[in-house]
Amino acid sequence: MKPVYSGKVREIYEVSQERLVIVTTDRVSAFDHILPATVPGKGIVLNRISNFWFEKVRRIVPGHVVSDRQEDMPEYFRGEEFAGRVTLVEKLKMLPLEFIVRGYCFGSMWEACRKGEDFCGIALPGKYRQAEKLERPLLTPARKWDREHDEPISMGQLREMLGGELAGRIEELCLALYELGSGYALERGLIIADAKFEFGQNSQGELVLADELFTPDSSRFWDKGVYRVGNSPPCYDKQVLRDWLAAHEEGGEMPFDKVPEELLARMGEIYRECLERIVG
Predict the structure, then answer these.
(1) Around 195, how many Cα atoms within 13 Å sit in the side-chain half-sphere?
(2) Which of 85, 146, 200, 262 has the highest Cβ tally under 10 A?
C-alpha cells in the first residue's frame, strides 16, 4: 500500500498494480486554502452520493468503482475511522482534462456572455440572462496543467489533443450523463446547472468514468422551488463559507482559522440535505 495523492478532500492509495483506494475526508477548502477545521460527516455524504451515481450511469459508461463495501477493502481500511469513506477503484491512465457540461448560463460562462465574449470557443447569444437555461447543454472542456490550475479550451483544441473520434465519443458520453443526471435530479426538485466529469483509460484502452460524480463539490445544484432567472440562485455547496470569509477579510487576509462551528454545522446540513434529496 502506497500513498499516491493527497488533495483538498481526497486521499488516494495504491493497493496493487490494478487497484487504488480513495478515502474521502471531511476536509473543506475555500479560495485554494484547506481550513484547519472540518465539516463532520461531509466525506461520508460525498462518497455516498458519488457512488450512487456511478451505479446509476453504468448503462451509459463503465465507472472506476470496484466496490464501496468496507469488507472488500484491504485490511488497513477496515477500521471505524474509514467507515463510509472508502472506495476501491480501478487504476486508470487519466486524461489530463476536465469536461464540464453546462445547462445554464452561469458563473464564468455568464461573465463572458454579458461582456459579449466567446466562451471556450462558443459564441453565446447576448439574449441570455444570468442563470437562464441554455437552448441546449454545452460541453466546455478544460486542460489540467496541474492539480490546482485548469485552462478552458475549445472543442477544436480538444479534437487536436485527442483526435476527432475520441473527442466526439467523450462529448457524446458527457451530454448523455448530464441528461440522465439532470433529469433524475429535476424529478426530486433539484436543478443541476453544470457538472464536471473526468475520464481515464483502462489497460484495454477503453474509456472509464472516474473521480467523483454529481456531488455538490463537482456539480452546481439549485433548488427548483427558489430558482429564478436573472439572479444567483443559492447552491448546495460551500458558497456560505466563501461568503463568510469574504465578509470577514481584513487587510487582504481571510480568517481561515476562525470560521465559527455554527457555520461548519450549517454546511454539513446543506450537504446532508442534498444527499437526502438525491438518494433518499
Answers:
(1) 27
(2) 85
**The C-alpha cell that represents 254 in the structure block:** 481571510
C-alpha cell at 51: 457512488
Read off the pLDDT band of 32 (50, 70, 90). confident
Closest Cα partner for 128 from 114, 107, 108?
Answer: 114
CA angle 217, 221, 225 (to 5 degrees): 155
Q: Which of 229, 241, 232 is nearest to 270 (CA)?
A: 241
Q: If DSSP codes are grouped into helix, strand and coil, which group holds residue 99?
A: strand
Going by pLDDT thresholds of 50, 70 and 90, the confidence category of residue 146 is low
H or E segment and range at residue 50:
helix 42-56
Q: Hey, what's the cell of 196?
A: 464536471
Residue 100 near residue 142 (C-beta atoms within 8 A): yes
Long-range contacts of 162-167 (CB under 8 A, 24+ apart): 162/95, 166/207
- Those residues with Cβ within 8 angstroms of residue 152's Cβ, 6 or more apart along the chain or in another chain: 108, 119, 120, 140, 141, 142
CA distance linking residue 173 with residue 163, whole number of Å = 16
Q: Are strands 97-105 and 132-144 parallel, antiparallel or unpaired?
A: antiparallel
Q: Distance between the two ends of the chain, CA-based, in angstroms?
A: 35
- Give residue for cell 480501478: 90
C-alpha 100/C-alpha 115 separation (Å) is 21
pLDDT tier, 147 (very low <50, low <70, confident <90, very high otherwise): low
For the whole prediction, is pTM greater than 0.90? yes
